[in-house]
Amino acid sequence: MRRYHVTTFGCQMNAHDSERIKGLLEELGLGEAPSQDEADVLVFNTCTIREKPDTRLAAHLGNARVLKERDPERVIAVGGCYAEAQRERIFDLYPFVDVAFGPGSIPHLADWVGAGGEGVARGSFGTGEERAFAGRLPLHRERRFQAWVQISMGCNSVCSYCIVPAVRGREVSRRPGEILSEVESLASEGVREVTLLGQNVNSYGRDVGSDFAELLRAVDAIEGLDRIRFTSPHPKDFRAPVIAAMAECEAVCEHAHLPLQSGSTRVLKAMRRTYSRDRYLRLVAELRATIPGLALTTDLIVGFPGETDAEFEETLSAVEEVGYDSAFTFVYSPRAGTEAASMADQVADEVKRERIERLVEVVQRVAEERNRERIGGVEEVLVEGVSRTDPALLRGRTRRNTTVNFAGTAAPGELVPVEIQHATSTTLRGVERAPVAA
Ligand code: 5AD
Ligand code: SF4
Fold it and tell me: Cα separation of 123 and 137, whole Å?
């Protein structure tokens, strides 16, 4: 049997795309290989959001070249955002690559790998007119009780630092009926938690006569789901009906990932985020007032062109003011073709490095304070498996999306009450409690 291996970079959308790629290759009759070395078809599902994933990919492709030299029958396929961004150059940069495909052209992958998984037509496919949802493709899910569901593709925002709109194209919403029937079948297969995925979930539906609040309510009405998550919302489109739906829908988790990017209104404007610091903070206040126990997480960038020390300090103070439960922190990385990449006042690497260190420190302190407040409480945990750090413990996540390592006997996929006894900036530790009698 011919075997495939998929290496995934980047965001949850990419991880989900990889589940479709795997499902598709399995339908063609290929089995999964445990490593790149043992695979006949090597797929790299790439990311290009910052320079780092580009560099990591180059190292992986170095290995792929050696494997290809050893066995020229091997198929090397590069998909995802880097492939799309470099579609003109990819075969010059990496002549041993057989297939390149953009994130919108996964459904076409079968055409190259060939029916039965044999023979490859060397070529590339981009994200142009042919973009299609992969929703009808087979799906290879990593976990039986958790699933991602794509609700839209592309992005209509014009954030000046971001390459995503260029590689994933304009926003197109998936029809509500298609989304709901996918969620229904997942729920009937035993899925307890779904995460709705879109580049900007809050702008969902304008092109298909629906909206995100309506979609949340419809998904919540599906029998058998315990948890609904979504990522990512854009603060500019986060309006009252969605907040109300979050508060009223039982399965929708008390967590919002709300990318702030910068705490300075001037920088936000240069980023073209279209909200000010004040407006963001008002949204946070409204969310907190409506949804008790809400966890807030965010994305932050330091060293955007022109960012002054005082403006960077505003990001630090915003972290304190909001009190994030966690944050992804990034050093600004110029991406070719974006507006910000050609701005004159790029910040020196040294300054960026200092800023990110200070930011991480504040983020960790605030997150630890937030987590410590939870000690002594009992939280519902969805068990995911064995702890990564201590095999004697189980691991799971709370509704607020915090990882908990705990002593207990529950099986993966179960929801159990856990008493929280210890907290760090990133994880909680506790002990399983007997379920409260109804
Ligand atoms: N440089 C650094 N971080 C970036 N992000 C997006 N583009 C860039 C860039 N050019 C970050 C943003 C976004 C997250 C997914 O990645 O914070 O929310
Ligand atoms: Fe995801 Fe953006 Fe990376 Fe593409 S470039 S994989 S959309 S994070």
Answer: 21
Please, what is the end-to-end C-alpha distance for the chain in angstroms? Answer: 51
Q: Are domains 141-253 and 258-373 of this chain identical in fold?
A: yes
Partner residues linked to 100 by β-bridges: 78, 124
pLDDT tens digit sequence for 164-173: 999 999 999 9
Q: Please provide residue 5's backbone torsions phi and psi, each rounded to the nearest 5 degrees.
A: -140, 130
Q: 47 and 84 in contact (C-beta within 8 Å)?
A: no
- Residue 146: CB within 6 Å of ligand 2? no
Would you list the domain boundaries of the chain?
3-130, 141-253, 258-373, 378-432
Q: What is the DSSP string of 294-308?
A: -EEEEEEEE--TT--
For residue 182, what are the CA distances in angstroms to 109, 151, 203, 287, 384? 22, 11, 20, 29, 22
User: Are the CB atoms for 200 and 173 separated by under 8 Å?
Assistant: no
Q: Choose which residue among 257, 299, 359 to substitute to test ligand 1 binding: the one with the highest number of ligand atoms within 8 A of its C-beta.
A: 299
At residue 275 the predicted structure's pLDDT band, cuts being 50, 70 and 90, is very high
| Closest ligand 2 atom to 53 CA | 3
Per the CATH hierarchy, to which homologous superfamily does domain 3-130 belong?
Methylthiotransferase, N-terminal domain (3.40.50.12160)
Tell whether the model's pLDDT for residue 132 goes beyond 90.
no
CA atoms within 13 A on the CB side of 139: 21
pLDDT digits (tens, 9 = 90+) for 154-205: 999 999 999 999 999 999 999 999 999 999 999 999 999 999 999 999 999 9
Whole-number pLDDT of residue 119: 47
Is the bond preceding residue 232 a cis peptide, omega within 30 degrees?
yes
- For the full predicted model, state whether its pTM sits above 0.85: yes
CATH fold for the domain made of 378-432: OB fold (Dihydrolipoamide Acetyltransferase, E2P) (2.40.50)
